[in-house]
Task: inverse folding
């Protein structure tokens, strides 16, 4: 696919300001869509919206097909009649700029349980049953997995009794679960998420905003995906991974990144026509207009790390599914609206796949300043069929990066951008990227607002303190007014206004 000249913003839903401790699919999201439209943006890119896993990372989800219940809006539960205004009066005093995930989880769980109890008393069960019927290839297994996780105190599925650990996640097997109420509670959560999501997506389209979602290449070991399909992952007889995914030493880490996800048995997946991937991509395109394929390099060839290795340094490159996967997807999906996250170690095979299927790749401004004017991440070297970013969720903000970079790097930045004051770097850099030949520019909201390192979303290779940042009300107002007006002027001036 190829984009017309346009621009958009990168912000995860959890980062929106909200009175309920975390951004959600209700009024905060609609307010952000309005801000995007007023500032002339065409795209909203977000992180994965599946349930968060270890360290609250959306890239280590226990369920790659499901929606994150923490993103469900209490306000919409009230407007739909499943909660009353009184139910929302006892709201904790949340941090204004951070998500306190543990307390948010407790609060949202209580509200959703209350909404579920009211739902059961009324006559809307037929809507839930219709949703289950439509999504039965994944939602029944998900609900069963969640119910069993609760039954066994959140232990990894390989530590469950053998019957449950090997249970086929089909309707017949799920009927054997002792706690049917818990099963249907999790089905209800997904039904509500779906209803709220589809309303938001419709609102986005009405206002000329398209959603770019993010699809991690791997899934977590302790997930319904692996529990339900163990034969398609490289596991030992006890269900534990024999090898795990990651990347060798790179710009983010001197020891590489050991993600710990189990690696697919691509030969087994190819034998059944990549059925699991077809279902996963179909689900993703139900939610998003365009999908960013995280770690696209892994489809060409992946870094295989022994599960016993403590870091990613001990590993080897193994050939991936390459074009066979995308050829199979092409025969199932009407189109392949994918963005290839092609950062990191390059590969001739990866470039061939991207060229064959016309998948646009990515360039990131922060990677450009290494004193080499031929660096492909410098705006003067961008090409039309690329997605240009000032930074990603894994980068520091532009302000934070500038403050912590070596003086030689900052000197190159000043020279390249004709920068007089370092504090002007975010806005000058954004203008340079917007003026570039890249058809699509995506800017993290933090850079539009010139925020510092305190607004960083994730630091690769670390666990604590990530994924928590969110906009304050004042910052949201700035995006709606002064910063938004500047962005609109810049978007119009660089011929990106759609």
Result:
């Amino acid at each position: 696919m190829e984009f017309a000249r346009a621009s958009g913003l990168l912000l995860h839903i959890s980062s929106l300001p909200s009175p309920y401790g975390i951004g959600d699919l209700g009024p905060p999201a609609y307010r952000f869509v309005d801000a995007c439209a007023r500032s002339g943006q065409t795209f909203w890119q977000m992180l994965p919206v599946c349930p968060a896993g270890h360290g609250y990372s959306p890239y280590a989800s226990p369920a790659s097909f499901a929606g994150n219940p923490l993103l469900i809006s209490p306000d919409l539960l009230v407007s739909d009649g499943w909660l009353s205004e009184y139910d929302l009066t006892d709201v904790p005093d949340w941090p204004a700029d951070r998500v306190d995930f543990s307390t948010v989880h407790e609060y949202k769980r209580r509200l959703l349980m209350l909404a579920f109890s009211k739902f059961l008393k009324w006559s809307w069960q037929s809507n839930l049953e219709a949703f289950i019927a439509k999504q039965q290839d994944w939602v029944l297994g998900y609900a069963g997995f969640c119910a069993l996780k609760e039954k066994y105190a959140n232990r990894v599925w390989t530590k469950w009794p053998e019957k449950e650990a090997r249970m086929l996640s089909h309707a017949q097997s799920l009927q054997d679960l002792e706690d049917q109420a818990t099963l249907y509670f999790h089905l209800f959560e997904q039904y509500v998420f779906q209803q709220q999501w589809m309303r938001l997506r419709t609102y986005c389209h009405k206002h000329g905003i398209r959603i770019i979602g993010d699809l991690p290449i791997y899934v977590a070991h302790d997930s319904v995906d692996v529990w339900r399909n163990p034969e398609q992952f490289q596991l030992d007889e006890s269900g534990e991974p024999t090898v795990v995914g990651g990347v060798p030493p790179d710009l983010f880490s001197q020891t590489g990144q050991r993600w710990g996800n189990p690696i697919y048995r691509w030969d087994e997946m190819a034998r059944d026509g990549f059925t699991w991937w077809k279902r996963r991509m179909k689900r993703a395109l139900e939610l998003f207009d365009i999908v960013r394929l995280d770690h696209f390099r892994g489809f060409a060839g992946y870094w295989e790390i022994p599960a016993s290795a403590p870091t990613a340094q001990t590993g080897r490159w193994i050939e991936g599914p390459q074009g066979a996967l995308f050829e199979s997807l092409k025969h199932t999906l009407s189109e392949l609206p994918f963005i290839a996250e092609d950062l990191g170690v390059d590969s001739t095979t990866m470039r061939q796949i991207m060229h064959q299927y016309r998948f646009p790749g990515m360039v990131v401004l922060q990677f450009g300043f290494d004193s080499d004017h031929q660096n492909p991440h410098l705006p003067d070297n961008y090409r039309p069929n690329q997605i240009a970013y000032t930074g990603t969720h894994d980068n520091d903000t532009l302000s934070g990066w500038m403050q912590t970079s070596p003086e030689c790097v900052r000197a190159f930045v000043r020279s390249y951008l004709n920068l007089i004051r370092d504090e002007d770097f975010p806005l000058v850099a954004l203008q340079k990227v917007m003026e570039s030949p890249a058809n699509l520019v995506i800017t993290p909201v933090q850079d539009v607002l010139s925020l510092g390192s305190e607004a960083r979303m994730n630091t690769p290779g670390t666990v604590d303190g990530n994924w928590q940042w969110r906009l304050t009300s004042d910052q949201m107002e700035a995006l709606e007014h002064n910063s938004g007006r500047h962005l609109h002027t810049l978007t119009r001036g660089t011929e990106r206004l759609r």
Q: What stands out?
A: The mean pLDDT is 93. The two ends are 18 Å apart (CA to CA).
